[in-house]
Amino acid sequence: MIAPFKLERYFARYEFQARYLLSASDCESLSMPEVLELADADSLARWQSLNLGYTESLGLPALREEIALLYEKVSADTIMTLTPEEGIFICMQTLINPGDHVIGLFPAYQSLYEIARSRGCKVTPWLLKAGDNAWELDFDELENSLQEDTRLLVINFPHNPTGFLPRLPELLRIVDFARANHLYLFSDEMYRFLEYDPVRRLPPIADLYEKGISLSGLSKSFALPGLRSGWLATQDERLFHKWALYKDYTTICSSAPSEILSLAALRAREVITRRNVNLIGENLLVANAFFERFADQFNWLPPQAGSIAFPRLNMPVAIDDFCQQVIERKDVMLVPASMFDLPGNHFRIGLGRKNFKEALGLLNDFMLGI
Questions:
Q1: What pLDDT sits at residue 132?
Q2: How far are the Cα atoms of 65, 142, 144 from residue 335, in angstroms, in the given order?
Q3: Which residues pair with 271 in a beta bridge?
Q4: Tens digits of per-residue pLDDT, 101-116?
Q5: Helix, strand, coil fractions of the chain, as percent rounded to 5
Q6: Stretch(es) of the chain classified as CATH 3.40.640.10
Q7: pLDDT of amino acid 370
Q8: Confidence of residue 78 (pLDDT cuts 50, 70, 90)
Q9: Which of 70, 214, 240, 295 has a C-alpha 20 to 30 A away from that of 184?
Q10: Chain CA centroid to CA 9, Å
Q11: Residues 6+ apart with CB under 8 A from 55
């Protein structure tokens, strides 16, 4: 039996009721006209002649070829399109077995560890530590978490919910650890391309490691969550074929309109991601000023990439109660750390929406009134 997905149940309760979502992890969604305006001639022709029949189970070949351009050592032959959540589910179902041990970076999106746990696997969290000015990896903890039956290591960079991004030597150290211990390495890369400094962009794990698996998609960095478009990429052909067999029991194939719109968006990726990084940058300036103003009440660890951050409330009130009060009094939704199975007073904020300044202004008013 799988446990309820706390974060998704929380969003189901408040996402379409609260006026402001100050904890949304995606960027301001693009409209259909905006995507079609960016589409190249081939994508437009495909859209105008689209037949709403079944699609190829592995994904539209042209779309898989476009995705392959994001990798150096992965070809379209081992890229499968699917919904991002489905990618996590299929991978965990085909890669690990009951009794296996999994190490996962934590806090994390719940399905990255809960699906493994529901499979009867042992899961050890690798806790990201809050330093004085930034989040930090503890490699001693990673080494100490290793067991004889460890089979899989799960990471997520840029990280949700903290916005942490390791340096390349740190990522290579993780890859070396996985290789030395014969582990598969699953990497959630949904926020890739939202690095504030492009120089900091990390290579995908599917390129760096022969047993690496990269999950990515268009929900976060491309501001297109409504397409439900994502993919898994790997160099491991045997593992890829397992995914293909399992997908016959999930979605079977992708949505035909979604595939064409995804193709158009990927071909316009530089324009779209630049738009989103610029919006995040503007909001980050507002956030920095807010948390400087309330430096005694909050501990602000600025994110290094992505559209989210994970500050901590430094007041004698439980974070769940604080978030509930903000919703009730200001109609602004914040996500408490408990939705990530994490004790303490951290909460997530989202930096990718156009109404961020207005929403944070209401939080400012709330703070002045308590």
A1: 83
A2: 37, 27, 31
A3: none
A4: 999 999 999 999 999 9
A5: 45, 15, 40
A6: 48-268
A7: 85
A8: very high
A9: 70
A10: 17
A11: 253, 254, 255, 256, 259
Question: Which ranges in the chain belong to alpha helices (H)?
Answer: 6-14, 32-38, 41-48, 61-68, 84-95, 111-118, 139-145, 168-180, 205-208, 237-247, 256-267, 269-293, 319-330, 356-368
SS3 169: helix
Which CATH superfamily, name and number, covers 6-31+270-368? Answer: Aspartate Aminotransferase, domain 1 (3.90.1150.10)
Question: Residue 191 carries which DSSP code?
Answer: T
As a whole number of angstroms, the distance between CA 26 and CA 97 comes to 32
Euclidean distance between CA atoms 120 and 100, whole angstroms: 8
The answer on pLDDT for 119 being more than 90 is yes
**pLDDT digits over 257-287, tens only?**
999 999 999 999 999 999 999 999 999 999 9
Alpha carbons 370 and 361: distance in angstroms, whole number: 15
Helix or strand or coil: residue 159? coil
Which token pair is 171? 């990522």
For the chain, residues classed under CATH 3.90.1150.10 are: 6-31+270-368
Distances (CA, A) of 211 to 143, 205, 289: 19, 9, 43
The helix or strand, by DSSP H or E, that contains position 236, with its residue range, turns out to be: none
For range 308-334, the mean pLDDT? 98
Query: What is the tens place of the pLDDT at every residue in 164-186?
Result: 999 999 999 999 999 999 999 99
The CATH number assigned to the domain with range 48-268 reads: 3.40.640.10
Structure tokens belonging to residue 151:
């089979």
In single-letter form, the type of residue at position 208 comes to L
What CA–CA distance (Å, rounded) separates 220 from 216? 9
